[in-house]
Amino acid sequence: MSRLHVTNDYVLELNNVYHAGQMEASTCLEKMVGNSSVGVVLKDVSVEVHGGELMAVLGSKGSGKKTLLDVIARRAQGPTRGQILLNGVPMSMRLFQDSCAYVGRKCHLLEGLTTKQTLYYAAHLTIGSKVSSYVKSTRVKQVMADLALIHVANHGVHSLNQSEYRRLAIGIQLLRDPVVILLDEPTGDLDPLHTYMVVSILSNHAKKYNRIVVLSTEKPRSDIFPFLDRVTYLCLGDVVYTGATRMMLDYFRHLGFPCPELENPLMFYLCLSTVDRRSQERFLESSNQIAALVDKFRMDGRPFRKCAVSYADHVMETEHRLPLTAYGRPTTTQVLTNLMSREWAVLWNCGSPIGRSQFFLRLLLLPVFFFLLWIFYYELPMNQQSYASRNGLLYSCLAGTMFLSVASTVAVHPALRTRYYQESRDGFYFGPSFILARSLASLPLSVATVAAASAIIYFGMPMSTNPFQYLLFGSTLWAVHYFMEQQTMALLMLIKSSFNAALTSLFLGIVYLNVGSAMVRAVPGLPDYLYYLTYVTQSRYAAAVLNEQHFRNFSSLPSVLNSTLSIPCPSGTTFSNYGCRYSNGTHYLMERYHLTHPPYDDDLRFWLNFGLNFLFTGAMFFANIILHIVPLPAFVKSKFRG
């Protein structure tokens, strides 16, 4: 594996780079379908930028600015040829992730955290284990100071304005002190004052730490001109000019395009490098003019591209001369610990709306639902009608556990999933670490909420006073809760819309319940193909455990007619005799399940069903791990790209 040699002078070079990829959708059909034609996006691009310099990539929409940054970051989809070198070392995905950083146009942060917490967890996820916690904490404070975020250190991310939010996103990448940082439209949504602030901060960072900063922008303002050491003008993938900003004016003046005295030179030459589409004549004229400028720079532009902008006198002495990226990455254990701590920090941050809603959804929603069930089913009649009522209670417990698990997961997981997609592209951590940390962080929360909910029903009815029976009841429901959570997370891996993922997971849950639970339709009444289908549904085993636990030793109940006299139904009687349908609980189970009736096995094997219930939960967890390891198709990944 190629590694970057640590030095005080860094050079990023692109030599004769071509890239073919998807062009911008031009027809209504392409825009509706979400597909577009493939063509050459970058054409013979050669660029050079040194440490301590800030370079702006300028161009109109569709000129190839973002593609150029993606090609440097090794993120671009499609074939690329040419050389991309960092200090003479060919740029690879691993080298970029280890030594460089990328700030996308869209960045989704966890809104339940504060600014300081966001940077704290980012530091512990990105800076190597050899760096002490004190140095990481100091680095967080330094980045907040450099990016003017000290005054909002304890403010929630949800309360930040656009400029503060954008600076925080930049700060996450600056924490590990990358040698090169690429920024796609970092000032796109900002007003002039904050645009000036962001560009000046980036310029100061480049010179203070002798780093390379490359940003793209579509509408450069004149007040940022002094901060740009280099500029690169692109037009439809061709380089119109790249080199020192101070030489740009002389270059274009020599070609007969002097910038008027009161004009913004950045915008003036951007207009010169943009095809005029207002009429066919202007289109042809501007296209020919730009083609001539591209050919001219291709022949005579090498001295301008290679000209070094010397800032040696301005590079400040700092204690971080050696980039923090040189200290490697955190260990897997550290990554897991910090991912779990970050998720819990969102939950316990009750000062934010996100924290309060997550606290309710993850800890209180299921107990509240079970409390409503307790109110509804309290004082069950002790007669034959009680069998149907108790069946309804167990069904409601099982269905509520499944559906509310889906509801809490789709409310919490999408933000974490989006953050995972962005952080995994940056190489912070990868799918198995993410899903393992999510599962471990959720484990105590799901146990707590199911235990509290189960206690309300089991001791409140009461069903039994035996604590062991309560543990069996609660653990059976927990396995179902955790299974549905894992299933929903797996669906959210493939489906971007939380609503659609929730509907899909709920639909599957309804199928599980109606086919396999024996609470809606008795198993003996199912066609053979549906009966064998129940073997692959978790609800078959969970419901069998709940039914057998509750009804197996259930004593005889009187009929409705005899309930006031408490006269039990005689053994073997039927509804037609004495108004009794079930002589006891076993008789009820015989109607719902196959009990030693060939060619079927006994459906009620308590401990086997109990174990298989948990086996389904474990299998779904490992399936989720595998899903986060296997590379997804491009059309799926494109949904989540920012």
TrEMBL record:
Coarsely, its chief localization is: membrane
Task: Establish whether keyword Ribosomal protein is in the entry.
Answer: no
What superkingdom heads the lineage?
Answer: Eukaryota
Record has Transmembrane as a keyword: yes
TM region(s), chain numbering? 359-378, 393-416, 428-461, 467-484, 491-513, 614-636
Give the record's keywords alphabetically: ATP-binding, Membrane, Nucleotide-binding, Transmembrane, Transmembrane helix, Transport
Q: How does it sit in the membrane?
A: Multi-pass membrane protein
Q: Where is the ABC transporter domain?
A: 12-261
Gene Ontology CC terms, in alphabetical order: ATP-binding cassette (ABC) transporter complex
One MF term in GO for this entry? ATP hydrolysis activity
Q: InterPro entries this protein is in?
A: AAA+_ATPase, ABC2_TM, ABC_transporter-like_ATP-bd, ABCG_transporters, P-loop_NTPase
Subcellular location(s) of the protein: Membrane
By sequence similarity, the record places it as follows: Belongs to the ABC transporter superfamily. ABCG family. Eye pigment precursor importer (TC 3.A.1.204) subfamily.
This one is known as: ABC transporter domain-containing protein
Q: Which organism is it from?
A: Daphnia sinensis
